[in-house]
Amino acid sequence: DVRLELPPDHPGKIIVASKKSWIVACGNGALDLLRVLPDGKKEMDGTEFLRGAQNLEGKMLIEPQRVTCLS
After folding, report:
1. Model confidence over 1-34: pLDDT tens digits?
2. Angstrom distances, CA of residue 12 to CA of 16, 58, 71
3. What's the DSSP call for residue 19?
4. Sign of CA dihedral 65, 32, 2, 16
5. Is the alpha carbon torsion for 31, 33, 37, 41 positive or negative?
6. Handedness of CA 13, 63, 50, 57 (dihedral sign)
7. pTM of whole model > 0.85?
8. C-alpha span between 56 and 19 (Å, rounded)
9. Which residues make beta-bridge pairs with 13?
10. Which residues in 15-51 are b (16+ Cβ under 10 Å) and which e?
């Protein structure tokens, strides 16, 4: 079991995207995405998905939604 000591970050931000690991910040800590299910594709290993993607580190996994409140 390996524990990473990472600084707090925005939930959903990709903080590591390497050939061996894909780590995304959470509200409290981080997740190493071992399996993913991209839209319209079959389930795959997180590292398999990363082989087809580039420059993900520092980007948001999910873009925050803008909400307008009407009063």
Report:
1. 555 555 567 888 888 888 888 888 887 888 898 9
2. 12, 10, 30
3. S
4. negative
5. positive
6. negative
7. no
8. 12
9. 60
10. bbbeeeebbbbeeeebeebeebeeeeeeeeebbebbe
